[in-house]
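Lecture 7 notes: from sequence to structure.

We start with a single chain of 147 residues. Read the sequence below before looking at the structure.
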Amino acid sequence: MKKHISSIHENGWTFMETIIVIAIVLILTSSVGYMAIQYLDKARVATAKSQIESFCTALESYYIDCGRYPTAEQGLQALWQKPVIQPISDNWAGPYIYKSIPKDPWGNSYEYTAPGHNGLPYGIRSFGSDGKEGGEKNDADITSWGE
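Now the structure, written as tokens:
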């Protein structure tokens, strides 16, 4: 009866081969994570733009019913609840949006001004990921007036 003797090199991966495989997996995982973060940032910007457009549509409905836009003091909340700060319209027929005013995708409040930028009747702005005026890329402001 002959026994089969296997070499030590045939029993599995060496330590070096294992380290190389782990390094490759880490590189692939980090590049996928980086791409996911890029898509998440784009999704947040798109969400802020969409929410601002929804507010603009609701403000136009408010204007049709009330004959004016909410004041800066009344804010966007006037789209959800009848204002208690003057001027109060008897023709308020809201709510003009489906739920209370959300925060922007970065967790900050939207800024509502009336009158708005460049002579517009109102302005709505998200300050982007940094929560501050101005900025570039993800920190850039997202506005209803399109700058």
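The helical segments are 15-66. Keep this in mind for problem set 3.
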